Structures are given as structure tokens and as C-alpha cells.
């Protein structure tokens, strides 16, 4: 199979990580998903995303008065305790103790908020909300101090505030009975945790370069590892919760099935960007028929106590493990051996089944323990499958090795260097030092940074035209770029290129394009200012 350009979901809050200017380029080294910095990021991906999943689960279960509510909260609390050793390894026992004091307490604040809302206790709600606000300020300050300002306190507070808002919005929509909205927000909040871990791991590795052997947390290979981990761990979270809800006959289980479809579509998109449409279609057929659908059927069989049906379903799931393991082995040219993939898949399926069996038996503590084991297990996917893909297409995951220039040196454009400056939520545009006011702004939506296509294109001397409906043409020299609003692809001189996410029209009706895609397409370098959320694009002309 031929390698397509891999387009991972753009992680917008990665702009929280300081970006350095660079000079000399040493020789290339082989790209890998396994570096100290990538390992740190993967560990934070796991712990922070699991926190989000368990926080939402504990809150909704508590509101419903579910029998497993306490077990869900206990799992959430254990997640906080499990973070301590990682913090201690970086900032010592005193730092870990302070982290634990702040972080663990905020789990109780959200639990108190749920109880107050359920009791319609206005004063209790006000008190709990104030405690959550206090946590945001205190925890952001802790992160800023701990990282020596590499992750600024204000940026950390903004990120934590977004997380808390997404948890609360998910819960509010659930309480209102808007289950589709709740799980749409859940999926957005889940992705945010991977964004935060990228920012935090980048700050830590910048702070302690020797400890992490001067490796970086935001390489293309590390991004691939994180993206795969995000997709498969979200699958575990959604499937286990859906099976619980289907077993209980809960009103929201159909909304969870729809959320699983969204996860499958995202996974298919990632496969397509690597192995093309044929590979993506093959993935979807295998992934859904004897896997997603079979897990739902398994919950129904457990609900009915139908042992014969369960036995047949387990045969289908075993068939999935065989077929999907073979698919991965073939796709990666055995860089991920078929046998190893099949063995891992069978372990995964046994864990998912085990979580359901224990839940059905009423052993909720064991059910959440098994869920957590299953959730942690799949974080090996990013390392193993991602490692196989990077080994298979190593040149596609090369980052230009760079040496940091003197941070005290003023950033002055070199002769023949074009510069474009924009700022999130600002109408100011500066091109080669000349200021123009736009009628729209760059913005972040669905964890992707978008910039106005027309202003960027015209600012660099291209001509832009629009058909008044959904097609935009950019004429740059002898090249014609064609974009369509709502499409996740574009064309360069008639040749299709995947964007990775849909082109959208912003609130002012302007076509907005993902920053990462357009800058890579046009060959511009991107530098973020972490203090004011501005971005400077540079290119030798």
C-alpha cells in the first residue's frame, strides 16, 4: 500500500508550548515514536484523558443514582492518586503532595456540584462552582510555577478552564436529556485532554531537556502515537459505557452508539490518510461488523441471559481479532507482526468482555478496575502500531533537526524573508510589517486553529475568487488552488489533496482553512507566541 500524507487532528492548545527559533540543521536521524519525550506525552495522554472519562461518568452516574456511582467515583479518585508517582519523578515528593492536594480535591468539588444540582440547592451549587473556579486558578498557578513558566500560568488556567467547561457542559446536556449533545461535547472534551498533555509535556521537556535526552514531545512520530492512542482509547471509553447503558436499558445508549460511529469515522479517516481509500474501506468493514456491532449484541445477550447467543457472538469477536490482526500485519508490511496484533486484540476483547461481565454481576468495583486495565492497555497501540507505521514510512515522519538560536536575539526578518502576523480572535493582520485590519479573525474550533483564507492569500500576492456559493479559487502564479466549503479536500492544479478536516465558513461568512494544512501546503514556517496567542508565519522568498 502506498503512503498518503498523514494528517493527524490538529491539537490547537499545543500553542501553549513555547516555540523556539532555529538555525543550523544537523544530519537527519531515524524517526521513532519511542523517545523519552514521546513516552512522557503518552503517559500524560493516558492519565489526563482517563480523568475526563471517569469524571463525566462519575457525575452522570451520581445524578442518576446508579448502583455503580460510588465505584465510578472511587475509580476517578484512584486515577488522581495514580498521577502522583509521575509528578514525584519530575518535581519531587513535595511537588507531588501539592499536586495531589489540589487535583484530588477538585474531584470532590464536581461531586458536590452534582449533589447540589440534583437537590436543587442553589447555595450548594454556588459554593461548588466557586470551588471549581478556585481550583482553576490554583492549579494553573501550580503548573506555571512547577514548569518554571515554560507553561505560563495564564495559559494553563485557560486550558484547565476549558476542560472544566466541557465537563460541565457535557453534564448539563445529559441532565437536560440532550444525549446527542452531551456525547458530542464529551468527544470534544476528550480530545482537549490530549491537547493539554501535548502542551504540558512540551513545557516539561523544554524545562528539563537533559532528563528527556533533548528529545521533543511534538515530533510527527509523537503526534502519530498520540493520535492513535486518542482514537483507540476513546473507542474503549465509549464501548464500555455503551454496553453498560444498553444492559441497563438506559435512555442514552443510542446516543452512545452514534458517538461510537463518530469515533469509527475518525479512525477510518486516519487509516485513509495513511493507506488510502481502499485501506480505509477495508478497515471499516472489519472494525464494524464483528467488533462494534458484536459488542452491542454482546450487551443485549447479557441483558437477556442468552448464553447460546453470547457464545456465537464471542466467535464473531474472535474472528474480528483474526481478521483485523491480519489487516494490520499486511498494511504495515509486518512491521507490526500479524500474530502480535492478533494476540493484543484478543487481550483487548477479553478485557472489554470482562468489564461487562463484572458489571452485569453487580461487582462494580471490579468492573471499573477491569475498565481501567482495558483503557491503559490500549495505549500500547500508539507505540506498537504507530512504531510500525513510522518504521514503514520513516521518511514521512522526519522532522528537520534544529538547534535553538539565542533566545535573547531579536526576531528580525532576514533579507528576502516574508512574514505574516496574526492573533487568535484579533482582526489585526501584519504582512512584512504593514498593518491591515481584517473583517474577521483567526479562531480555534473543534481543537483546530483556523485562519482566514482570503486575507492570507491576498496578503502574499495571490488572487482570490469565489462563486458565491461554496467554491473558492486561489491563483498564485501559475498555480490554481481550489477549495470547497464543507469539503475535507482541495485541489492543486486539479490534483486532489486531503486537508484532514473540513474547510468551514466562519461567523462572518469567510472561508477559514486549518492553519497547519495551509502553511505546510505553501511551505511557511509557523512560530507561536505563547503569551498573547499570536502566530507569525515566515518564508524565504
From TrEMBL:
A Pfam short name: Cu_amine_oxidN1
Signal peptide (UniProt feature, chain positions): 1-23
Q: Which InterPro entries match?
A: Cu_amine_oxidase-like_N, Mao_N_sf
Q: Where is the Copper amine oxidase-like N-terminal domain?
A: 430-536
Would the keyword Signal turn up in this protein's UniProt record?
A: yes
Question: Membrane-spanning residues where?
Answer: none
Keywords annotated in UniProt: Signal
Q: Domain of life, per the record?
A: Bacteria
Identification of the protein by name: Copper amine oxidase N-terminal domain-containing protein
State the species of origin. Paenibacillus gansuensis
Amino acid at each position: 500500500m502506498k503512503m498518503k500524507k498523514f494528517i493527524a487532528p490538529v491539537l490547537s492548545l499545543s500553542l501553549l508550548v513555547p516555540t523556539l527559533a532555529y538555525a543550523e540543521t544537523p544530519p537527519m536521524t531515524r524517526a521513532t515514536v519511542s523517545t523519552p519525550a514521546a513516552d512522557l506525552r503518552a503517559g500524560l495522554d493516558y492519565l489526563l484523558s482517563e480523568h475526563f472519562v471517569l469524571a463525566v461518568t462519575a457525575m452522570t452516574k451520581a445524578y442518576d443514582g446508579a448502583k455503580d456511582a460510588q465505584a465510578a467515583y472511587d475509580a476517578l479518585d484512584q486515577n488522581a492518586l495514580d498521577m502522583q508517582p509521575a509528578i514525584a519523578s519530575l518535581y519531587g515528593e513535595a511537588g507531588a503532595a501539592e499536586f495531589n492536594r489540589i487535583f484530588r480535591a477538585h474531584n470532590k468539588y464536581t461531586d458536590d456540584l452534582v449533589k447540589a444540582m440534583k437537590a436543587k440547592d442553589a447555595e450548594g451549587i454556588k459554593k461548588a462552582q466557586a470551588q471549581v473556579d478556585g481550583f482553576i486558578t490554583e492549579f494553573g498557578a501550580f503548573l506555571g510555577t512547577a514548569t518554571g513558566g515554560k507553561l505560563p500560568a495564564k495559559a494553563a488556567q485557560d486550558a484547565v478552564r476549558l476542560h472544566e467547561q466541557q465537563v460541565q457542559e457535557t453534564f448539563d446536556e445529559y441532565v437536560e436529556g440532550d444525549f446527542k449533545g452531551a456525547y458530542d461535547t464529551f468527544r470534544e472534551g476528550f480530545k482537549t485532554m490530549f491537547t493539554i498533555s501535548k502542551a504540558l509535556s512540551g513545557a516539561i521537556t523544554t524545562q528539563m531537556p537533559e532528563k528527556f535526552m533533548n528529545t521533543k514531545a511534538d515530533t510527527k512520530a509523537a503526534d502519530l502515537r498520540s493520535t492513535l492512542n486518542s482514537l483507540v482509547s476513546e473507542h474503549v471509553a465509549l464501548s464500555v459505557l455503551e454496553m453498560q447503558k444498553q444492559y441497563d436499558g438506559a435512555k442514552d445508549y443510542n446516543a452512545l452508539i452514534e458517538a461510537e460511529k463518530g469515533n469509527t469515522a475518525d479512525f477510518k479517516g486516519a487509516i485513509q490518510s495513511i493507506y488510502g481509500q481502499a485501506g480505509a474501506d477495508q478497515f471499516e468493514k472489519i472494525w464494524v461488523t464483528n467488533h462494534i456491532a458484536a459488542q452491542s449484541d454482546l450487551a443485549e445477550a447479557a441483558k437477556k441471559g442468552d448464553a447460546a447467543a453470547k457464545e456465537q457472538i464471542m466467535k464473531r469477536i474472535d474472528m474480528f481479532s483474526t481478521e483485523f490482526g491480519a489487516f494490520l500485519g499486511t498494511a504495515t508490511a509486518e512491521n507490526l507482526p500479524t500474530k502480535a496484533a492478533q494476540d493484543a486484540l484478543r487481550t483487548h476483547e477479553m478485557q472489554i468482555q470482562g468489564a461487562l461481565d463484572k458489571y452485569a454481576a453487580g461487582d462494580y468495583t471490579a468492573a471499573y478496575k477491569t475498565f481501567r486495565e482495558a483503557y491503559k492497555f490500549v495505549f500500547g497501540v500508539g507505540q506498537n502500531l504507530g512504531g510500525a507505521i513510522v518504521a514503514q514510512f520513516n521518511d514521512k515522519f522526519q522532522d528537520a533537526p534544529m538547534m535553538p538560536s539565542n533566545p535573547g536575539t531579536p526576531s528580525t526578518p532576514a533579507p528576502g524573508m516574508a512574514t505574516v502576523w496574526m492573533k487568535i480572535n484579533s482582526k489585526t493582520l501584519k504582512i512584512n510589517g504593514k498593518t491591515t485590519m481584517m473583517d474577521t479573525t483567526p479562531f480555534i474550533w473543534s481543537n483546530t486553529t483556523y485562519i482566514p483564507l482570503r486575507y492570507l492569500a491576498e496578503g502574499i500576492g495571490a488572487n482570490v475568487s469565489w462563486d458565491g456559493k461554496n467554491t473558492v479559487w486561489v491563483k498564485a502564479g501559475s498555480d490554481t488552488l481550489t477549495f470547497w466549503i464543507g469539503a475535507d479536500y482541495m485541489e492543486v492544479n486539479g490534483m486532489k489533496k486531503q486537508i484532514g478536516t473540513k474547510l468551514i465558513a466562519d461567523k462572518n461568512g469567510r472561508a477559514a482553512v486549518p492553519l497547519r494544512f495551509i502553511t505546510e501546503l505553501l511551505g511557511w514556517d509557523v512560530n507561536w507566541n505563547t503569551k498573547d496567542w499570536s502566530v507569525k508565519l515566515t518564508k524565504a522568498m
